[in-house]
Amino acid sequence: MLKNLIFVGTGDCAKEVFAWANSFFLSFGYNFKGFLGDDTSTALAKIEDYVPQENDVFACTIGTPSVKRKLIEILTSKGAIFVNIIHPSALIMSDLSVYAGLVIAPFSYISNNVILANYVLINVAATLGHDVNVGEYTSICAHCDLTGHVKVGKEVFVGSSACVIPGKVIGDNAVIGAGSAVMRNVPAGMTVVGVPAKRLS
Question: Which CATH architecture has domain 3-76?
Answer without folding.
Answer: 3-Layer(aba) Sandwich (3.40)
